[in-house]
Write a structure and sequence with these properties.
By secondary structure, the chain is an alpha+beta fold. The protein has helices spanning 9-13, 16-21, 29-49, 62-67, 92-99, 103-106, and strands spanning 2-4, 7-8, 54-57, 81-85, 110-116, 119-125, 136-140, 143-146. The protein has a single domain (2-146), classed as Muramoyl-pentapeptide Carboxypeptidase, domain 2 (2-Layer Sandwich). Bound molecules: zinc ion.
Length: 152
């Protein structure tokens, strides 16, 4: 099922962890509506980058979120967040620093550059965090910092 011209429900719900552990990752109806909004945000990001956007993690059922060690209040469980890469555009740092000045225009309510346990990706969400300082952050093994910072 296509949510938008370039994003399908399948790619926003696919989880290698769910497959490996045989966990159900089927989203309920209200989550599908949220994923639609997320896909629309991803289209705007794709347009801005001028490159295909690969979703490495979209919706996570509570079981899948627990298995990947996601935050207990993760926007992924509500279908409001996606972890993305765009290899033909550049590194996660380049993606995040390109998107950071455009979050309002692109209606990205939270932008996180993550570099954890040797992996790097960009997390985007349609839900605005309670504290403004958390809207654009970098998370590494050392912790979270406001703004986008180059990863080691
Ligand atoms: Zn994420």
């Amino acid at each position: 099922m296509k949510l938008t011209p370039h994003f399908t429900l399948a790619e926003l719900t696919r989880s290698t962890t769910a497959e490996r552990l045989r966990l159900d990752n089927t989203p309920p109806a209200d989550v599908i509506r949220a994923l639609q909004t997320t896909a629309e945000m991803l289209e705007r990001i794709r347009d801005t980058l001028g490159a295909p956007v690969i979703v490495t993690s979209g919706y996570r059922s509570p079981e899948v979120n627990r298995a990947v060690g996601g935050a207990t209040s993760s926007d992924h469980m509500a279908g409001q967040a996606a972890d993305i890469l765009a290899p033909s555009f550049g590194t996660p740092y380049l993606i995040a620093s390109t998107l950071a000045p455009l979050v309002s225009t692109l209606r990205i309510e939270q932008l996180i550059l993550e570099g954890v346990k040797g992996k790097q990706w960009v997390h985007v969400s349609t839900r605005r965090p309670a504290k403004v300082i958390n809207r654009i952050i970098t998370i590494t093994d050392a912790g979270a910092r406001a703004g986008i910072h180059a990863l080691a």
